[in-house]
DNA sequence: ACCTGAACACCGTTCAAGT
DNA sequence: ACCTGAACACCGTTCAAGT
């Protein structure tokens, strides 16, 4: 339901309620129970639409590695488009229907690159979990801005990671590199996992 | 607060409320507001204790790769010990104090293995996000059992991933490998990321 | 000065009452 | 047969009233 997504995006998933949606649609809060058995079922449907978003446009070029990168990059983009909803993807098992086309695309590219089924399973699952972990951690940042002052305040200053150097010498050597660019950090992680994909 | 953790573990984080904790402790629900400003602050404290759990006992042997593996394996174990609380780790930024000792240990081992700071930052963040994504996805499974019938029903049959073969040929080749062993799948992903760590 | 608990403004969901 | 909305059993949090 597009209206529900709009309420989530403008006020945050935390502020979403049947009463809020009813107010947005000028109808009784209990009217939604004819279309969805429960509030959770409605949220699951929203999450599934995010998981499916853009999967039909994934490329299949002659470079399987690039196609795989595009897949997970696009998943990250879709999740970050709805930052307060993003954590709810963990409610959906990786085997749920919404993931099928997306995972089929990724596994097909791994196969096309000459990887055997067992390795492909490992690499696919590693890529998926890495992407979810990285992206949900980014989404939390964006979500805080939305939940605080409504949608629109995106792209504020990024919180710096700055531990006390005397307590954690090795970590503070590395801290300047940690948050300098979320997108390139994400892609670097993907490449790390894909490093020796056969070609 | 150990009592709050007990309430969360027995009935699930979803059923945790100030009133439930008050009932467990035989006191007024508003009494907690002297120790924690808000319910969220209390949950954050619980999450931080899970992140810190066991970090003092992490090994420092002559094998940095094994020590890194032990670090993230132990994080996974701590998160899975409180499956309904686990998703709330996403409320805490990776730069929060609770992560310092743990990330310092990991970065120190990467450094000891001869990795330069920029690479160490990439690999550390990749390992952390991969671990969070993988473990939170596992935790969801355990959490469902707890929230349904109270703690104790752990280790029930694992949901199989079984997509319709005609629709997703590449994926269904791989499906039998996907969920066969969570722990070894997790470790395989770690090794994939650590594959060419200098030694 | 400290503590308690009544009260406020919510919430998801049900189901009796209306049409 | 269908729809509505009053009502139930909650919730986090505040703050006036007690000690």
TrEMBL record, chains A, B:
Residues 1-54 form the HTH tetR-type domain. One of its GO terms (molecular function) is DNA binding. Residues 147-172 are annotated as: Disordered. GO terms for biological process: negative regulation of DNA-templated transcription. Transmembrane segments: none annotated. PROSITE patterns: HTH_TETR_2 (PS50977). Keywords: DNA-binding, Transcription, Transcription regulation. Pfam families: TetR_C_1, TetR_N. Residues 17-36 bind DNA. It comes from the Bacteria. The keyword Metal-binding does not apply. This is Transcriptional regulator, TetR family.
